[in-house]
Specification:
It is globular and about 55 Å long. The mean pLDDT is 97. The protein is built from eleven helices and eight strands. The chain is an alpha/beta fold. An eight-stranded parallel beta sheet has the order 2-1-3-8-7-4-5-6, sandwiched between helices.
């Protein structure tokens, strides 16, 4: 297997554009521009690969053919309604099928490259549209590119794929699509569904009758900072991945758990997000011989957060992590200011936060984070042969 990394990219991926909407493709444009200015995409072993659209055979592994027809027809029919389209979350836009299929195809290319051993890691920062359902658009997502890519891996013979979702919102679409498939472990850390869309992702959601223990949900209280997030991540994610023994790790790396994101209530920093990417890479190295596919996802602080977070992700995936104290290049600052006048353009790749944490212990007075950890461990650990009370598990 090559140690190279595929980054699936060209500007056609900016065509997934919902108009005057929080999910603005400028965040992806500025990510790629920042990664270029910092030399991340010019590193030895980085292969930039253009996307190709997923065809109907791939898309219908996950989505209902009638839904594909609706996505194609909706932009041509001003009276169209249904399938979750035409809402404020999922407005109809020109070339909706083509641009959505291209995002899905990009994630399939990334997944295939890693599975076939062409490269060890692959990234599609334009992907991560994890809310789309088999026959319904939801949460800004038309086609569920992580699910389409994972279904492709199953068709290629994969027997154990782990999907870890660190977006602030529950990865509900991917969980539902593989709910009863024991070959796919879905793990989601997210703000509690009592406070945030989509209202799912409780600890007792643990998988269907044929796949008990293959859905893992860690709902976290509003206001949680890096130390609590890292404590929860390390109290659950390594244990369930080690029990499942995945052949490949697929991650959705939404950046919307950041403290300034306008659509959620967690208080992470870019430094904490960088620490999570490092932990995911280490788990892929430990359990999957390094096989790691990463996508973007949510993230609505378009200038302040997403470009820095995902440039850190690209750096971690392609080699040495960037020093958090790195300055953002002047040319990038000028581009960001031109694209979004009036926004605060960050000067450095850090929020000056130490993302250290105290490991979870089942003793003492539990904090809200500890109660969330305990609920998840109690619900799912026994199904995976793990002891919910033993911090070594």
């Amino acid at each position: 297997m090559s140690d190279d990394t595929v980054v699936v990219w060209d500007e056609s991926l900016l065509g997934y554009d919902l108009g005057d909407h929080p999910l603005d493709p400028v965040r992806v444009e500025l990510t790629i521009a920042l990664a270029r200015e910092l030399g991340v995409l010019e590193r030895a072993g980085v292969r930039l690969v253009p996307p190709t659209p997923a065809d109907d055979t791939l898309l219908t592994r996950v989505h209902d053919p009638r839904y594909l027809d609706a996505v194609r027809i909706a932009p041509r029919d001003p009276l169209f309604a249904g399938f979750g389209l035409g809402t404020s979350d999922n407005p109809v836009f020109d070339r909706m099928h083509e641009s959505s299929a291209l995002v899905a195809g990009a994630s399939v290319i990334a997944a295939e490259a890693v599975w076939r051993g062409t490269v060890r890691r692959a990234v599609n920062v334009a992907g991560g549209l994890h809310h789309a359902m088999p026959a319904r658009a939801a949460g800004f997502c038309v086609y569920n590119d992580p699910a389409v890519a994972i279904a492709r891996l199953l068709d290629l013979g994969a027997e154990r794929i782990a999907y870890v979702d660190v977006d602030v919102h529950h990865g509900d679409g991917v969980q539902q699509i593989f709910w009863d498939d024991p070959r796919v472990l879905t793990v989601s850390l997210h703000e509690t569904p009592l406070a945030l869309f989509p209202g799912t992702g409780f600890p007792d959601e643990t998988g269907g009758p044929n796949a008990a223990g293959t859905a893992v949900n860690i709902p976290l209280p509003p206001g949680i900072e890096d130390a609590g997030w890292q404590r929860a991540f390390h109290a659950v994610v390594p244990s369930v991945l080690r029990a499942f023994r995945p052949q490949l790790l697929f991650t959705q790396c939404g950046a919307d758990a950041h403290r300034v994101d306008p659509l959620a209530d967690l208080h992470l920093s870019v430094d904490g997000q960088r620490a999570t990417y490092l932990a995911l890479r280490a788990l892929a190295d430990e359990l999957c011989d390094g096989r790691w596919v990463a996508t973007g996802g949510g993230g609505y602080a378009l200038v302040e957060v997403v470009p820095r977070a995902w440039t850190h992700l690209l750096a971690v995936a392609t080699g040495a992590p960037l020093d958090p104290a790195t300055l953002t290049p002047p040319a990038w600052r000028e581009l960001a200011a031109a694209r979004r006048p009036g926004f605060d353009v960050p000067l450095r790749m850090t929020d000056d936060v130490d993302p250290g944490y105290e490991p979870w212990q089942p003793t003492g007075e539990p904090s809200p984070v500890d109660r969330a950890i305990a609920a998840t461990r109690k619900a799912v650990f026994p199904l995976l042969g793990l002891d919910p009370h033993d911090p070594r598990d």
